[in-house]
Write a structure and sequence with these properties.
Shape: globular
Number of helices: 14
Largest sheet: 9 strands, mixed
Structural class: alpha/beta
Strand content: 15-25%
Oligomer: single chain
Number of strands: 18
Helix content: 25-40%
Bound molecules: zinc ion
């Protein structure tokens, strides 16, 4: 039996219970066993102490959208490295997209990912299954088999399931299994060859553009199909003001839709591409200042429900090349909190809202089939993230746990750093500055 751990005197933020105050948290046998406000001390005398004064203590972050690359692209990332990168970013539950090789379109591959996650991973991995066989958009995957293998949603992420009849059928099945469809909204006829947001900067750089309409057309289609089928739709990586307006109107009509936005689409614009930085090449592309403002407003108003990283690790060779040949994607786990905290420091989001979008809100989309997630309630798994909201640090990609060092934030100073991550009561990441103390 391991000794209980008291996380003492931190600022506890747990939006699932409306807690936003100083207090302490006791972890016993991998579960939250006690929560006391103010100076309260736990009922039992024997425990180790994690001094959390000046730090935020909240439920472990949940990421509904990441790429772990295994099987098939282990040079970019593995379940072992990806889950360690997640832990360094404060994430204790991550949902991996099925665009591996082979793709997660059958039970055997889903079981492979789950067993790798259990034996080699350090946080909870919940797989997402394909909508179509081979993600080809032609024939439905064995959705029933995938549902019984435990996928949390269906998606052909990277591809939009362009055939509307197939998407309609997928929605009808997904409804029967009570699972959402997550769509990567992109009209590929409009984006073919596109390298960045279509606008003044793409013209100036002479790069083919990806218009906002390419996303908005698919968002509109999916909302119409959701209304038709009564399915649950989750829209991945929303990036445009127009998409926000479509989702807003759909929610007003009572359509069952949720949506996510990434840290990079909230905090960076197409200007990051100036200088042809391939690390700022991402799909959907970084948009305009006006779009980022609309996305932040949408988060505040719950038009966009959650923040998800779309962690997309690539090798150096995938990015050290001509812009047109570079892969799309940003390695996002390890900079997510630091970059998002800029919105709190600027007064654009409250800390409680930010934490909610990373914990409670995504837990509501996943449901409680996989245990009580995104909460510090007594008896819940002790998935806890502890961060310093004010610590300045420089992004050193050489120190990343992820194999993907592809981020336009390399070398930048961020304010706000994860200090420790606990998964089921076990410390899976701890900053060197933190020293545990035995009581007495
Ligand atoms: Zn995508």
């Amino acid at each position: 039996m391991t000794k209980p751990l008291l996380i003492q005197g931190g600022h506890i933020i747990d939006p699932s219970q409306g807690i936003d105050e100083i207090g302490s948290l006791l972890i016993t046998e991998g579960k939250i066993s006690w929560l006391g406000k103010g100076e309260a001390t736990p009922p039992q005398p024997d425990y180790d102490v994690f001094p959390a004064q000046g730090l935020i203590v909240c439920p472990g972050f949940i990421d509904l959208h990441c790429h772990l690359r295994q099987p098939g692209f282990e040079e970019k990332e593995t379940i072992a490295t990806g889950t360690r990168a997640a832990a360094r970013g404060g994430f204790t539950t991550i949902c991996c997209m099925p665009n591996t090789n082979p793709p997660l379109d059958n039970q055997a591959i889903v079981e492979f990912v789950k067993s790798k996650a259990t034996t080699e991973g350090v946080v909870r991995v919940l797989p997402i299954g394909c909508i179509s066989k081979g993600r080809k958009g032609e024939e439905l995957a064995e959705m029933g088999e995938l549902a019984s293998a435990g996928v949390i949603a269906f998606s052909d992420d990277g591809e939009p399931a362009a055939d509307s009849r197939l998407m309609r059928q997928a929605m009808e099945y997904s409804r029967a299994f009570g699972l959402p469809i997550i769509d990567h909204c992109e009209d590929t006829a409009l984006t073919e060859g596109g390298q960045m947001n279509e606008g003044i900067i793409s013209t100036k750089l002479g790069l083919p553009g990806i218009p906002a309409a390419a996303e908005e057309i698919m968002v509109a289609r999916d909302l119409a199909l959701t209304q038709l089928t009564g399915a649950k739709l989750h829209i991945a990586h929303v990036t445009t003001e127009g998409s926000v307006e479509l989702i807003r109107r759909a929610k007003e009509k009572g359509i069952q839709v949720t949506a996510e936005v990434t840290p990079h689409h909230l905090t960076l614009t197409e200007e990051s591409v100036l200088g042809y930085d391939t690390n700022a090449k991402v799909n959907p592309p970084l948009r305009t200042k006006r779009d980022t403002q609309a996305l932040i407003q949408a988060l505040k108003e719950n038009v966009i429900d959650i923040i998800a990283t779309d962690h997309a690790p690539h090798t150096e060779a995938d990015k050290l090349c001509e812009f047109a040949l570079a892969a799309f994607g940003i390695s996002g786990f390890e900079t997510a909190l630091g970059s998002l905290m800029s919105l709190v420091h600027d007064g654009q989001l409250t800390l409680a809202t930010l934490v909610s979008k990373l914990t409670y809100e995504p837990s509501r989309i996943i449901g409680d089939k996989y245990g009580k997630l995104g909460t510090l309630t007594i008896g819940a798994p002790a998935d806890v993230t502890i961060f310093d909201p004010d610590m300045n640090w420089v992004v050193d990609t050489g120190a990343f746990a992820s194999k993907g060092r592809n981020t336009p934030l390399a070398g930048s100073m961020l304010k706000g750093k994860v200090m420790a991550t606990m998964f089921q009561g076990k410390l899976v990441y701890k900053d060197d500055a933190i020293k545990l103390e035995a009581k007495g």
